Amino acid sequence: MSVQDKLALLGGKKAVQKEYKERWPIIGEDEVNAAVQLMLNGELSIADGSGILDEFENNFAHYHGVDYALVQNNGTSALHAAFFAVGVGPGDEVLVPTYTWPSTANAVLSCNATPVFCDIEAGSLCIDPTDMESRITPATKAIGVVHIWGYPADMDAIMEIARKHNLKVIEDAAHAHGATYKGRKVGTIGDIGCYSLQASKMIVGGEAGIAITNNPEYFERMLVLSHYGGRIEKDQITGKYSDYSYTGLGPKYRVHPLAATIANLQFKHLDEWIEMRRTNLDYLSDGLRGLRAIEPFSIAPDCTRGAYYGYRVTYHPEFLNNLPTSRIVQALQAEGVDANSERYRLLHRQMLYQGARHYEQVTGYKWPYAPIREIKYQDSDFPVAVSIHPNLISLPTFTLPCRDVLDQYIEAFHKVVEGAEQLAS
Ligand SMILES: *Cc1c(COP(=O)(O)O)cnc(C)c1O
Questions:
Q1: Which residue among 103, 186, 210 is best mutated to probe the pocket of ligand 1, counting the most ligand atoms within 8 A of its Cβ?
Q2: SS3 for 311-335, per residue?
Q3: 396 C-alpha to center of ligand 1: Å?
């Protein structure tokens, strides 16, 4: 065996010589100057949603070709407002993929409703429409679709099921700003689209979120759930909720003007940054495609990825003598690849969604959410998610030009796969 072939984990030379560290988010001088200006102006809260809040909402709505946008203090509160707006309430059930960040499901709990978890599709890692339809009950009110890692979910199939069963569709596009499904921007296909602008997302406010819709009734209901005072009075449409304009309905989800200012500046770069990630990650995927045991994801025809919040490949251990994923990840790391096992946990396994009993024991409080149908989830109900999840390998999203690093990453994957028998002993 040549020195080049010996795996770094076993003392060979690393395939990736150039360390890749990308600081995210990209904060430019404009953001810094705008932040200073805000403080000099003393604009640290905008109760009526005017000024920069209004400006950002208009820009975001215009980009998506929709009538309404509501900026919030985070993506989770945007989702809460959205589920509330379409009429999700106590006793209702909402279909949510088991493979997503907890926010999608927690927003359903915040409406006193029950998230009902669904399996995912192997190709996209998004909710599987067939499995989803099989979990519909008379209590099902809505679907929380997640365009995971920037891949659009199968919206035609999902919308058809939604129409057939009279369900509302909330698109959680926290991973997918700017992604398109058959020529339409994600977030504009269902009833409401929600985005996170949290600091790790593609465009950031630090902590912020935004919801978009074409439906004035939904906008008004999101508004009255999330805000109060001048903001409701200024932006209400029918006046139906004006008795609540002083108090709101309980939560307060107003965004910090600093976050809205930063997000508004970042937003100008969205298409450019998507293009940069696309160039890098398509190059990486092409370099890995055809490699035994490693499968990059492919985008469905007529769709484009947006935001690229994460990059995953699937490892197929059966092609490498069933070497565990952790061993492959370890070997890649030793080569200098910033590879990691999947960090998202499957939600059907999480205690929060198992109902009252454990919650009451641990917290000493009564289960505060709806009197849910106690769903006993088993891994066998989620064959695709359960089999794929342990074999996902996460890599960086590479925004800035870095072809030399990508070449070395590709080389490292080839080296580890070709040299995998060295790991067996
Ligand atoms: C980040 C994220 C959210 C929530 O966003 P926050 O702004 O952090 O509240 C919702 N859904 C998904 C899938 C996310 O990744």
A1: 103
A2: EEEEECHHHHCCCCHHHHHHHHHHC
A3: 18
Please report, as a single letter, which amino acid is at residue 113.
A
Q: Whole-model pTM?
A: 0.97
Rounded to the nearest angstrom, the distance between the alpha carbon of 8 and the centre of ligand 1 is 36
Taking each continuous run of H as one helix and of E as one strand, the counts in the chain are 15, 14
CATH of the domain at 214: 3.40.640.10
Please report whether residue 279 resides in a domain. Answer: no
Structure tokens at 270: 């969205």
* Sequence-distant (≥ 6) Cβ neighbours of residue 157 within 8 angstroms: 129
If one residue of 172, 197, 343, 345 were mutated to test the ligand 1 pocket, choosing by the most ligand atoms within 8 A of its CB, it would be 172
Q: For 147-180, write each residue's pLDDT tens digit.
A: 999 999 999 999 999 999 999 999 999 999 999 9
Domains in the chain: how many in total?
A: 1
Residue 93 included in any domain: yes
Minimum mean pLDDT among 2-11, 310-319, 368-377: which range?
368-377
Q: Please report the atom of ligand 1 found closest to the CA of residue 309.
A: 15
User: Is 300 a member of any domain?
Assistant: no
